[in-house]
Amino acid sequence: MVTTPDALREGFTASDAAMTLGIAPAMAKEHLLAAEGKGLLRRDVSPDGFRFFVNLLQEIDADDIFL
Asked: In total, how many domains does the chain have?
């Protein structure tokens, strides 16, 4: 779901994930927040709510002083 062209371009909401997975929006939001906590996703917060995006910067080492 997160690697579809639309999701890469526009992100997705908990409602989008809920419809895709067939679960309640609150449960989908918990899954998305858990994935964010593991570094798999990043979120954008706007007046429209949370939109999640795949984390394309996972490979970067935050401890690398030459970054």
From this structure: 1
**Phi then psi dihedrals of residue 47, to 5 deg:** -60, -25
Instruction: Tell me whether residue 61 is in a domain.
Output: no
Residue 59 belongs to a domain:
no
Model confidence pTM above 0.85 = no
Domain that holds residue 10: 5-54
Q: Specify if 63 maps to a domain.
A: no
Which H helix or E strand runs over 37?
A: helix 25-37
Q: Give me the tens of pLDDT residue by residue for the chain, a chain 67 residues long.
A: 777 888 888 999 999 999 999 999 999 999 999 999 998 999 999 898 889 999 887 776 667 766 5
C-alpha–C-alpha distance, residues 16 and 19, integer Å: 5
